[in-house]
User: Fold these one by one.
Assistant:
Number 1:
Amino acid sequence: MTHATLTLDPAFTIGTVDPRLFGSFVEHLGRCVYTGIYEPGHPAADEHGLRRDVLELVRELGVTVVRYPGGNFVSGYRWEDGVGPERPVRLDPAWKSIETNAFGLGEFMTWTKQAGVQPMLAVNLGTRGVQEACDLLEYANHPGGTALSELRASHGSREPYGIKIWCLGNEMDGPWQTGHKTAHEYGRLAAETARAMRMIEPDLELVACGSSGAGMPTFGAWEATVLEEAYDQVDYVSLHAYYEPLNGDLQTFLASGAMMEAYIEDAIATCDHVRAKLKRDKRINLSFDEWNVWYMSRHQANPPTEWRHAPRLLEDHYNVLDAVVVGSLLIALLRHADRVKMACLAQLVNVIAPIVTEPGGRVWRQTIFHPFAQASRHGRGTVLRVEPTAPYAGDVPALHATAVQGEDGTVTLFAVNRSLTDALELHATVRAFGKPRILEHSVLSDPDFEARNTADEPDRVRPRPVGTSAIEDGVLHAMLPPASWNVIRLDTR
């Protein structure tokens, strides 16, 4: 057993959590849409074909904003195909799939209302450009009296959709992207698209594509070049990151949160460098609009070989360690809540997702569902500056932690023990809050790191209460099992 310490004090804060930090992502990829959120004829489907059982879990998950329709898919997408009565069937080269377009913008907006989430819409800047983005904006948001707004009304939506968050393309530095561009090409296109969209609706929130990942040879230089072109026109730069255990190295996998934090800090440094160079007052914030554990190497080893509609793609089944890493990634996002204002767990259903369905059948929560739901439920408020002291597990400290002070007088400590072998005895000084009491301590862990949830055992892995934690003389004492995600809630009133 090893020891770790930290101090919680309301005088030391990082920033306020934007609720949109707890977003997710729906792409026309595999079974995320078809037999995921949308399955006409399913016993649980409503009159719109939306699965009510999935909607119930989405609301429980606590998702606040959802990015749509991609992803790689959007870079070849004609938005017109997904509206109105005539829906042409197309090839989707991004995922070698057949797209029926039975589900489109109108269905998505109906779903967002049912789910209680804010839409984040991506425009195609791969094969399309300024005009098509402006057309989509007019169709979606203009009240009426124009060709495209009246077209929307004729499709059954007299009231405008009022979509405020728009992503200017997707991963445009990636050579796998349809319409891949250089930084200069994309920067100019993003700036001109943003400028034109703001001429229609000035108060939009616009997200420019950052590099597709910290490991890309373009990272850093891409962001700098794009922002030099588009700094005044955009509000956010995107970050994308996926993590998996490589070569059986589980200890490094558990350090994924440290890698995410370094990535965020490098992106912030680049944004602030351009701000200084351009002598601007405005700060560019970050939209971490794709993140998760993804066993990408499996997909790369077995790419699709046939054109199919809604094939089973990227359907990772998550275990205990995956959930602990997702918890650590949530901690990393919260620890940078001053600049990371939006984030999207990718994706929502079936495709590297917290929710799994079977066509015509059941739905259940994956292991990664639980840390996200707890963070969304208890991670609203002001993030406190937490600097733990702990022994190392591999190349990083064994304890990864943050805390959020809510307006209701609670303080929630989120803590991950990264050690695969040793429990951590945590001693947290909390006397700055007077005489707080413990409301709950829950832990997600299991001696079997490979344990998973299934349709037959949907609750095999879930948070469980711990009754041994205590506060004595202003110090919280808690035991954190090896490879565990912990949520400790305090009442400070």
Number 2:
Amino acid sequence: MTEEFQNTYQDVKKKATAGMGWNYFSFGLGKTLNIATTAVLAHLLAPEYFGQVALATLAIEYLSVLSDLGLGAALVQRQGNINKYANVAFTLNLSVGIFLSLVSYFIAPYVANFFGEPLVAPVLRWLGLTFLISAIGSIHKILLQKNLNFQRKIIPEIGNTLIKGIVSIAMAFAGFGVWSLVFGQILGTSIATTLLWIIMPWRPKILWDKEIGKELFNFGFPVMGNNTITTWEENFDYFIIGLMYSSADLGVYTLAYRLPQALVLSILWTMTDVLFPTFSSLQDQKDKLKTAFLSVLKYVELLVTPLCLGMFIAADPLIRVLFGEQWIDAIPILRALSLYVWVVSIGYHVGDIYKAIGRPDLLLKISIPMFFIRIFLLWLGAQFSLVGVGVAHLVAGIFSATFRYFVAAHFLKITLKDIIRELSAFVCGAFLALFSLIAMYLTRHSSPVIQLITIIFFGGVGYIGAVWFFERKSVSNLLVLVNFRKN
């Protein structure tokens, strides 16, 4: 690696890690609050309440692909003065937000009838208001992301999580049942939007420009198309379970998915907020993008591997301690899903590269075949059990990771050897598994709390020791980049 290339490598990592330091602080605090809230609510509310909200949220998710139109990605990718573009995007987003809130209201009875759950209708109508509320602050959030101003971005995110948790728990204690989940979500979104307007001084104007709108939409349409396919693909499990199983079963599956989503998928989404604008600044330099991508892959796997393996091994005591005995059916589902998100994490951010170089159409081309493969596998898995759905996700994830690799190999000239070289976390994970399984065996007759604490401690010692032995230099470099250590 030349000196110039090494300097570029370090510059890219500095851009990414500077934002990620704040993003991970927000992520860690937010997810701790979120998991704590979920744990309390799991002890207070019946599984069917989570299932009813999941069905309404499913409709919200399918509609939400239209809420941004891909305009946010277009603003982040565009260089120079974007104020006029931001105003046009705000006007479009606000119009779509109003439209989707109205659509949610009118389709609610049909969604409820389709799934045979009458309570879904009023739940969906109330949750539909979040489209309008979110649209009011959507461009403010995009501008914070584009400017890599993640110190301020923390405030609305934590405000949302905190208010949602407080309201939901208070209403659950008061006996409001499913409505504690609904109004917690609405008030949390409202607080987040209010805080975005407070911390981001930009004030939008209602503005329309045909040429600007066309330019934004031309970039955003493939992104929206990819998001549409991804949303249908990732939520088809809820759809098929809602049709074939009871709302209580859907509640169990939803809660099993909550931990992998909060601890792993959210990390990947959080990193995208930083990596997309960072990669965009290098959009004309593919060699440097390749170097940056491989660097990100290494650090992603170092972070994600212990979380996924930990959930897989400690699923039994983890579910019993956090959520209670009434949720033990979620244990095997969690194991399958933890392996699934681990597979998904490999090469996940290659999509940010494609958007950064102005080729979001590649995302769409990758998503279309994967859509049909995943839909078929999820339908097939659902014929057997809820665990079968989790296993179907895992198999689909393997197909997706393989497909992503071949496309990345062609575009970024990445070889399989390049990928394997960055996956030292897998070796470290073997030590985590060994130490954790020994701890599980030694505490097999202990209480779930003692067993969970012991597994976490022994697994943590094994993994951290292995990382320090195999990747000491990489960890030291990362600590320097985020200013935890001096050169």
